[in-house]
Structures are given as structure tokens and as C-alpha cells.
Amino acid sequence: MAEVTFEGVSKYFGDVVAVDDLTLSAGDDDFLVLLGPSGCGKSTALRMLAGLETPTSGTLRIAGEVVNHVEPKQRDISMVFQSYALYPHKSVYANIAFPLRARKMPKAEQHERVTDAARMLGLDDLLERRPGQLSGGQRQRVALARAIVRHPQVFLMDEPLSNLDAKMRTQTRAELVELHQRLRTTFVYVTHDQVEAMTMGTTVAVMEAGRLQQLGPPQEVYDRPANVFVARFIGSPPMNILDGTLADRDGERLLVLPGLEVVLPPDVATSLELGADRREIVVGVRPEHLIVGDEGLPVTVRVVESLGHERHLVCETTDGTMIIARVGGDAPVPADGSAAHLSTTVERLHLFDAVTGDRIVR
Asked: Which domains does the chain show, CATH number per domain?
């Protein structure tokens, strides 16, 4: 087991900043997921950890050792790529055994490790086949087995499930979680898929434009997003974001939204600063926390999307902002084009600074 640490790591490609002052760590037995949209720097961070890119500045450590200029083969890591990277002319057995043969490991030990990895991933009956005779999910498991046989300190995975269909992704996610629990070693996993991050990671690092936006357990990132970007990126459907203002009136502090004024409880009101007479604010609320009723924010229901087990009400506020409410599949819902009201409790609201986008801690 090995701790992985980024200490102020940056990577420039000419004038382009791919990773900017990244500082985070994954402890022994951690499953760290680097999550973010395309171009956010997550794959570049992983490639620097693998030794495929050299940091412009900062320090990378594996098990406490600085590895900035250590050759990839000396870092005691295994990497699984999106493309599988299997040898088409070799059997499954030979593909799995390749890194062991390259190290001239005794054949008896090679055989033991290959058969153990194949058994772990359900490949026992496929060892004589070639990659072209396998499904996408089977090829991905072969790539995983090839990484496992080395018994590395750290596993690095770069969007390994993106080529699989939805059913196979679900199955392979469960297999990877089980594999991590069996091996009890450090995983660093890159994805743009928040479902993968939420279901697999013990720690999630959300990145945008090369910078770390938030680091924490998946549920904490979901429940208390650090800024508007994280709030919008995590969740499906994403968090609804509304522009509002804070105002004082007759000794009470109000949250003013399009068509609605909410009196804030004293404990919430005192935690919010108010410059001059008013303060612009950004308000977030999860779709599942909105209730359709006779009171609350006035909206027009534009579309009702049915997913079987639940329905999404795509609504428009009086200022033209689109928001989504999630309700149960058997709950009564307004018709398309009808007027409705949405409400929630103050405790369910997420408040962000309108200028910086940062969460207002309360």
C-alpha cells in the first residue's frame, strides 16, 4: 500500500495551463477519483503520476518518495487505459502475463499470478482466446488482470469504462469496487462520469480548468458543494441555480427570488453578511428537494419527463430561468404548460456568493 501525494503540482504546455497548483493526497487503501469535464486536467494529472508527463513545477510522491524524475517502470504502478491496449495477436493468457515475462519472472510464478488474476476477474475459461474473440467487457477485464498480476503499490485508471455500454458499465463498476476491497491498495481513477465517482470513490477530487475545486467523500461533495461549479456538475439532474438577493425589511432578513420572498430564520440570517441595503446571492436547490404544491416559487411547467420510477418536471420561473423538480413515478403532476408552485425548506437551500461562486458557510 502507498500514499499518493500532489504538492503544488502544475503542468504547462506552452502558454496553456493544464494543471494549476494541484495539492491533494490519496492515502493507503484509498480509491481516489479525479472527476471533471473534458479538458479539466484530470488525465494530465494521472499521466504525471504515471511518469508519462513531467510536472512543470511541484512535487509528486508515491509512498513518501519523490518521483518527479523517476522512470515509469521504477514507480511500482500499473495503469489501465481507456483503449485496453491489448496485443491482438497474443492470447488472453499471454496478454496478462506480458508484464511478468518482461521482468523475466520464473514461469511457475507467472502461471500462478496469471491464473489467480484470471480467477478473480472471471476469465478462467477465456485464457486461450484472443482479444478479437472477446466482448468489450471481457477485454476490459483482461486489461485489469494484466495490471493486477504485477502486484503494484498503486493502480492508475484512465476512464477505463467509457467504451462499455450502460449495462456493462454498471457491472464493471461493481467489479472494480470489489477488486479494490480485495486488493486493499491505492487506486487513482479518472472519469468525467459523476455516477462512477459517486458509486466507486472513497474520495472525490472535482477539477475544473486545471484547478482543484473540492476534495472529499462523495456524499459530502454532493451534500455540501464548495462552489457553484461543483453544485452544477454533481447530480443528475444537476442542482437548480437561481439568482436572488438578500434584503432587510422591518427587522427581518429576506431572501428575494423571482416572484417569491422568503423570511430567513434568525440563525440563518445572522450568518449572512449584508453589504449596504442588499446583497446579490446565488441560491441552489436539488431537484429531489422541491415539492409541487399551492405555495412557493411560481413556475410554468414546460415538459414532464417520465423515467418510470420517477418524473422530472422541467419548469420556467417568471424571469425565464429553467429549473427541474424530481417527483415519484406515481405522484400526481401538473400538465405541460400549466402553472404550478415549487417549495422547499430553508435547510435544503445552498447559498453561494454571487461574485466568487463560493459556498457561503452556514
From this structure: 4-230 (3.40.50.300), 240-353 (2.40.50.140)
